[in-house]
Design goal:
With 404 residues, the protein is of the alpha+beta class. It has two domains: 2-56 and 266-403, no CATH class; 60-263, no CATH class. Helix content is 54%, strand content 17%. The chain contains twelve helices and ten strands. It has helices spanning 2-17, 19-58, 78-91, 125-130, 157-162, 206-212, 233-248, 269-303, 305-313, 318-353, 368-395, 398-403, and strands at residues 63-70, 97-110, 115-123, 137-138, 152-156, 173-177, 182-190, 201-204, 223-227, 252-258. A six-stranded mixed barrel has the order 2-3-8-5-7-6. Helix 1 (2-17) crosses helix 10 (318-353). Residues 280-396 form the ABC3 transporter permease C-terminal domain.
Amino acid sequence: MSGFVGALSEAWAELRHHKLRVLLSLIGIAVSVAAIAAVLALGDYMRQSQVEQSDRYGGREATIAVSAVRTDGAPLDWSAMDAAVTAAAARFDLAHVTRRADLTSTADIQTADYVRPVMVRLGDPDYALIHRTALFAGRWFEPGDAAWLAPPIVLSQPLWQALGAPSLGGHPTVELLGPLAGTYRIVGVTPAQWQGDTEKAITLLPDTYLDRTEGLAPGDSLNWELWVGPDRVDAIGPELAAQLRAAAGADVQVSVARSDWATRPETQQSAQIFELTTGLIAGLVLLLGGLGLVNIQLVAMRQRIREIGVRRSFGATSARIFTTVLFENVVATAVAGIAGIALAIIVLRILFSLDVLPTLQDVPPFPLRAALIALAAAVGIGAVAGFLPALAAVRAKVIDALRI
């Protein structure tokens, strides 16, 4: 143990003595390690971005979607089906349940210029949690909103701007005409889905819509989503489906299936391909940096051959010489690796602060896996790059070294 510590101490002393040579030889190593760490971290960020994007459409991991339709073509009793889903959710202790619908019928909204038809969507308070709904302004529905005299409404950003972008702090209202006629309080604004998005839509609570209409129009349907959780979904799913089908009756076809991203492994393929491709490039750069380090260390070893001879004449063993020279490279590349990891963290934080990378609701910390792999790669390339110079130092004869 003392020999190991001594060799490590000598290696560090040599590095401090040859600062400029070490700095020049390790710049490429540090940059390569930073690239490897950044690539692995970006892979995790891309996966999180894909997860959140998928959650917005299919719900969080282990979300079960329920839909129902009568096989005889008659209208479905939506209230009875909703009661069955609510009772089943209570039996399985599922806290997050939402109804959702994208209606084919439109609503008429009074703007400053004319009456404008808009798309209508329905969603409960838990919809925002299950689908990670991000708002441009304001908030989503809350459980107590259904009791308001002026029901809450959420507008799309294009519609909100068409209404003059009223400040939500002043509790603005909007007038709907037709079957949904009444005054509604604007509580939130959903952001545009892409640059140039002009879709004008409103979102209402399902109870608000059903209370003001005679029911869903032909062709429209309610769907239910239950966020079960990955640890329970396999056990609950089949039993939930059986109970809902039994409660609905023989004339109702009930579909129960997972809608989340975890049922589609192909959603992670692009992140894996990105990580593999950029990782190979960074690894190649690291290898080239290691070859450059080998050349520099071999040249440096020729200049230090007299030093090696003196140390051998004073009793330094071949093993001690070999270990010292090898550790010089390992310690140097380890320091370069730590600097590279720090550089990767700084660069990624700058990219997030400048909104260059996609905005995430749950930003993962810098992955420990990325730091460990990058540091291991640096130490490994240092050991490989230090082997040949260490071997040359051991093979140098004392008498020849002292003649130089």
